[in-house]
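Sequence, please.
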């Protein structure tokens, strides 16, 4: 009931702000609602046959307002599930509460902002409603945090960015006193071809035995009107501030348009730990499926997923999904 009231209130606010934006005397000011909903029906097979049902995985509700002077204001809530509470309940978080300013090739974001650690890869993957991008899926970093980011496009083929945030993500915002620093560069040497490099340090601010976390992400990909293909390598050192707890991972994915509204995709992930310290969670996953666009705002994707764990005595997992996205 609380969730329903929040959603109704938020949608009412969006409608009022949108009406005001449309009636403004300055035609250059533009506002738009942000509504994204991820849901699915899934069923496991074999040992996981009892894991089946309909799932409301996540919903984003918010509003973005752009002004003529390069300023924009964005507020987004994230309605999702948490492992800390019963699956029948949902938490509501503030995902973004930010102000952005763009002047020619310079962009500055402040507040509860989207982070830059895997934002580019997530957009290139393009199927967030199916699966998170690799670093988000395996908790290498958070998609949003409280702080400041700056990006500058030096030329058509090179853009650099820097970010300083609390390092706790948008669900905690600030728990310790350390900061997370990151630098990235995106190269576009020829049309459709991209290279992305990122390095970051998340300061340990707890007990003396904790160590700074170092995050390295690299990406290479190509996209055209017909297909896109990307590959990334990720490394995180001192995972969760534990000395020597290093994780590595690769993710390879492709998406091919068969017709105007029908496409197929495939993805392979491989997560592995240094010296096998995290062997019980190390695994490879394979996802294949098709996507059908039902108009402008709805996507449906039947897909099949296989999990291949490395731990001794743990068998493979198999599951079928019908994933759905709708939003504006």
């Amino acid at each position: 009931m609380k969730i329903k009231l929040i959603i109704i209130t938020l949608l009412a606010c969006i409608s009022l702000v949108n009406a005001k934006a449309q009636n403004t005397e300055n035609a250059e000011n533009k506002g738009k609602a942000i509504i994204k909903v991820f849901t699915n029906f899934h069923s496991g097979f074999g040992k996981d046959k009892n894991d089946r049902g309909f799932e409301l995985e996540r919903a984003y509700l918010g509003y973005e307002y752009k002004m003529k002077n390069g300023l924009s204001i964005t507020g987004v809530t994230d309605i999702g599930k948490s492992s800390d509470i019963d699956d029948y309940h949902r938490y509501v978080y503030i995902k973004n509460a930010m102000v952005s300013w763009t002047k020619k090739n310079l962009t500055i974001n402040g507040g509860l902002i989207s982070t830059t650690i895997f934002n580019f890869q997530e957009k290139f993957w393009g199927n967030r409603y199916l699966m998170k991008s690799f670093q988000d899926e395996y908790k290498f970093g958070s998609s949003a945090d409280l702080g400041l980011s700056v990006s500058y496009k030096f030329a058509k083929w090179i853009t650099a960015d820097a970010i300083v945030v609390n390092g706790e993500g948008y669900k905690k915002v600030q728990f310790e006193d350390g900061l997370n620093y990151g630098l990235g560069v995106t190269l576009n040497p020829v049309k459709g071809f991209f290279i992305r490099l990122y390095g970051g340090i998340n300061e340990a601010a707890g007990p003396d035995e904790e160590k700074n976390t170092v995050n390295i992400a690299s990406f290479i990909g190509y996209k055209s009107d017909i297909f896109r293909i990307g590959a990334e390598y990720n490394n995180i050192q001192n995972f969760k501030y534990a000395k020597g707890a290093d994780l590595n991972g690769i993710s390879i994915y492709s998406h091919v348009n068969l017709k105007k509204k029908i496409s197929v995709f495939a993805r392979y992930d491989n997560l592995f730990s240094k010296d096998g310290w995290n062997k019980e969670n190390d695994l490879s996953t394979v996802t294949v499926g098709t996507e059908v666009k039902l108009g402008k705002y709805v996507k449906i994707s039947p897909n099949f997923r296989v999990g291949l764990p490395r731990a001794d005595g743990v068998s493979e997992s198999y599951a079928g999904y019908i994933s759905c996205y709708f939003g504006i």
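The chain has one domain: 2-327.
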